[in-house]
Amino acid sequence: MLKNTLIFISLFGMLLAEGNPLKFSGQVRQRFEMVDKDFTDTTSFNNQNYLRTRFAVSYDNEDYSTFVQLQDSRIFGTETSTLKDGTADALDVHQAYFKLKNLLGMPLSAKVGRFEAAYGPQRLMGAVGWHNIGRSFDGVVFNYTNDFANVDFFNLKQVEAGTVNDDDDFNVRGAYAHLSLMEGHKTQAFAIQDGDRMTFGGYGKGAFAGVSYELEFAIQNGAESDNVKYGGMMYGLNAGYKIAGMTLSAGMDFVSGDDTTTADVNESFNTLYATNHKYYGYMDYFLNVPVHTGGMGLSDIHVKLSGLKIAGHTVKVAYHMFGADQSADSFGNELDVTIIKPIAKNVKVVGGYSLFMPGKLKAEDGANASFVYLMTIVNF
After folding, report:
1. Alpha-carbon dihedral angle through residues 72, 76, 77, 79, given to the nearest 10 degrees
2. CA distance 227 to 231
3. What's the CA gap between 20 and 16, in Å, rounded?
4. Residue 147 to residues 105, 178, 186: CA-CA distances in angstroms?
5. How do beta strands 327-344 and 347-358 pair?
6. Backbone conformation region of residue 124, classed left if phi is above 0, alpha if psi is from -120 to 50, else beta
């Protein structure tokens, strides 16, 4: 027993030794939430503690690289016994892939396995880092890079039906390109196919005369059924200006809804695999669009302030006014306040308060809803 223990300690020491080609990283994140989202005065807050633990090992050389990331996601108190339940239902391989470089002597690489697929500002494909599990895909990504473009060609398997007919599977395919058109400005173009739906669009970001801008647009087409076609569109427009170390920004995000007078076209734009928590309010009433808007679409006029420093804390404030494309009534308004405090190297505490004031489309004459959280993030 002692011999085996000494061997284990020696091997572990070798892994951690300086110069070892394996690199280790990880994160432990705990978040306490108080949630009251039902627009009534008769219920109290629902309190829950979330814990997400990630541990990763990677290796990289000039020919290939590998990355493996294990993850455990849990809610405090959901195991049935403190002694007998060790099932770890949400223990999983979050990412596990290898990347082959310089294929065929060209600036071409291939990434194969399970990985996060976050593209552009994540309005359509994102990792959803706020979620206690987060999103991963299984598949392959080929990357080609030259002086003009950096392009990913991806084929991701969302559903393997396991039948004799591959037509029953569900794949997400496409290309996402970063183009070098103007120095200091980002220009991106993409095409995404999920099932029979196609999504095309572009993204731009930069600054002129101290005013930053961000623009994204996309359209969808394809056949939803024999008699109905896809015909949705979305766009995001944002402008920002820095003042005394802070950034004041304003803009609008728009997602089209279905016009019921056109029976042969579904104009509801689907935000696919987006990180919608990042855009449409931290209370997450609009995570699944168009489902969470009833197919009526969404308009979000917002004003945001970031970078405000108060007693060693960084404060961010956002105010959203949510409307619908296919209704004159509103979903409501939301205020989000976030406070960030680093407390040690690689350790920070993030707290937030959100208030949602419902309009007729959410809860006519309903009470306001609230959300409070306190999150500690430890990286290593």
Report:
1. 0
2. 13
3. 7
4. 16, 11, 14
5. antiparallel
6. alpha
Asked if 23 and 69 count as a contact pair (C-beta separation under 8 A), the reply is no
pLDDT tens-digit series, residues 138-187: 999 999 999 999 999 999 999 888 887 777 889 999 999 999 998 889 99
Q: What is the Cα–Cα distance from 81 to 85, expressed in whole angstroms?
A: 5
End-to-end CA distance of the chain: 31
CB-based contacts of 352, cutoff 8 Å, min separation 6: 282, 336, 337, 338, 339, 371, 372, 373
Nearest CA among 102, 94, 127, 124 for reference residue 199: 124
Output the six-digit token pair for 319: 């105010």
Q: Tell me what pLDDT residue 3 has.
A: 59
Tokens found for residue 334: 């939301």
- Give all domains of the chain, ordered by start, each with its CATH number: 29-379 (2.40.160.100)
SS3 letters across 62-122: CCEEEEEEEEEEEECCCCCCCCCCCCCCCEEEEEEEEEECCHHHCCEEEEEEEECCCCCCC
User: DSSP assignment of 14-66, as one string?
Assistant: HHHSTT-S-EEEEEEEEEEEEEE-SS-SS---EEEEEEEEEEEEEEE-SSEEE
Q: Among the listed ranges 10-14, 32-36, 112-116, 329-333, which one has the minimum average pLDDT value?
A: 10-14
Residue with the bigger pLDDT between 5 and 268: it is 268
pTM of the predicted protein model: 0.90
User: How far is 13 from 104, CA to CA, in rounded Å?
Assistant: 38
Both structure tokens of 16: 């951690």
Rounded CA separation 35/45 (Å): 5
Give the number of C-alpha atoms closer than 13 A to the C-alpha of residue 149, restricted to the C-beta side: 12
Residue 241, amino acid:
Y
| Euclidean distance between CA atoms 67 and 174, whole angstroms | 23
Among 92, 74, 67, 90, which residue's Cα sits nearest to residue 31?
74
Tell me 125's DSSP state.
B
Q: Where are the alpha helices (DSSP H) in 251-346?
A: none
Segments of 223-359 assigned E as strands: 229-230, 233-243, 246-255, 265-266, 298-310, 313-324, 327-344, 347-358
